[in-house]
Amino acid sequence: MLLNRHIVLGVCGGIACYKAVDLASKLQQAGAKVDVIMTEHAEEFVRPLTFSTMSHRPVYSDLWEPSGEAAETHIKLAEEADILAIVPATAQTIAKLAHGFTDNMLTTVALATQAPLLLAPAMYKDMYTHPATQANLEVLRQRGAYIVEPAVGLLASGAVGPGRLPDTDLLMGAIRLTLGRRSGDLAGRRVIVTAGGTQEPIDPVRYVGNHSSGKMGYAIATEARDRGADVVLVTGPVSLPAPYGVDLIRVETASQMRDAVMATVHDADALVMSAAVADFRPAHPSPQKIKKHAGEHLAITPPGQQGQATPDADTSGGGFSIHLVRNPDILAELASLQAAQPRSNAGEQPRPRRLVRVGFAAETENVISNARDKLVRKRLDLLVANDVMRSDSGFGADTNKVYFFHADGSMEDLPVMPKAGVAAAIWDRVISLLA
Q1: What is the CA radius of gyration of the chain?
Q2: From the candidates 4, 104, 136, 210, which is the catalytic residue?
Q3: CATH 3.40.50.10300 in the chain, residues?
Q4: Contact 60/105 with Cβ under 8 angstroms?
Q5: What Gene3D superfamilies is this protein classified in (predicted)?
Q6: What CATH number matches the domain at 6-183, 3.40.50.1950, 3.40.50.720, 3.40.920.10, 3.40.710.10?
Q7: What is the tens place of the pLDDT at every residue in 353-373?
Q8: Does 360 appear as a known binding residue?
Q9: What is d(CA 55, CA 21) in angstroms, rounded to the nearest whole number?
Q10: H or E stretch including 133?
Q11: Which CATH architecture has domain 190-280+326-342+351-434?
Q12: Model's pTM, two decimal places?
């Protein structure tokens, strides 16, 4: 997404500008061409040599240098930029941009460029919340600027409040999102992604679950965001940070995931069900923790006695048994709903766009035959299957070895690759289906 993209990074004079050094480095490592423009006061905090070392390119700052080359340079930077990201953006620069002032290299490039403008404000909390700053930000927002809200926390002054520059990973996500919305191949599309495993309660302490880490689903959601899509991520319990710029819905059970998908999918273009949804759940979870009693074989009570754990006839094992019932099959339900949707008749308003549905099959044996069967049963457009017994493809791994099964019966055997690469391959196929 960032490979060969031309990013002009504006750096203003605030203590947070030291964090922009790491951002410049990460952008360059991601394959972007990074040109840094520093304001005069930014050079009081970080020397230009630091940025040129990280970006491997010259740093620009003086609009009034005697050769006159800067006058040509600011036009070239403005025309070639894919994005102008100002990190950190001080109250002074924000005010200048809102009112069209061009008294330095950065503000001159900002006024001359047609590239999207991203601002990451960072300043003392009362400066940020001041009505003048907020009004200036609103003016820029209405003109199309993307504002990365500052973090709340301990500031350089020792005060606590809004005004901290977000971490580099979040800033990278904001830049990717802004670029994707401008020129991504999913721009204007709305997609739903499910991720992680579900947890079906036995009692308030225990649950029936699986080993899904959510890494694949989060990679799919991130890739869709980077391509410009409006992304809803429905996620079971995971230990991963939320991708920046996606609409996150947290659920625990399969029923909750079903409800979240059904509530959001009505105007979506694509659904990618990468979550490991539990097929079964305890029929009657106990409202209180089930206690361990030596010598008793416990069972969760049947209907009519719901809510207590009672001894079973077999008291020799010292364990307890659970009666499981089926969970809703989200993909099968959607297939039935879509099949039942009537076609448009002549003169009628066109029906909503057909939902492209992608499923996953985590198998431990007979991967190909089981995957083909699931593809047909759930009437999917694409099914992604993998063998979770492999060390390079199982739950929690950073790589995946997958097969793609298409509705026309064809199969693709993909090599082992990072999960981000698998996500990119999935969206490549979905884009073809959308077209």
Answers
A1: 27
A2: 210
A3: 190-280+326-342+351-434
A4: yes
A5: CoaB-like (3.40.50.10300), Flavin prenyltransferase-like (3.40.50.1950)
A6: 3.40.50.1950
A7: 589 999 999 999 999 999 999
A8: yes
A9: 9
A10: helix 131-142
A11: 3-Layer(aba) Sandwich (3.40)
A12: 0.88
